[in-house]
Amino acid sequence: MPLGYPAQNDTDPWSPFFAAPDRTETNQQQFLSIIQQLAEAEQLATAVSGAKVLDLPERAEYLSGHPVMIYGAVVTGPVSELKKLAQTSTVRAVKVKETRLWNWHS
Prior knowledge:
Layout: H1 27-40, H2 42-49, H3 56-65, H4 79-86
């Protein structure tokens, strides 16, 4: 099961990563807190996720002693711009999972 958090603060007030003015935790700290809470309620988290095994206590322990690295991103935009992005030296691979028609000029 992939785990992750947004690199930037979220603008959705319902998100645990919402950038409230009084928030002092980084997204990484908030993410680790969420993993710990899920580990404490692993049976419920497993039932809700539909996974057979989540191994959340082990994941929480590992993450507490190792830095979290960003290894992927979700990007949207016109095909021409995405092709330019794919040619940059910082992008190692591109995988298209979903496409939608969108009017970028409106």
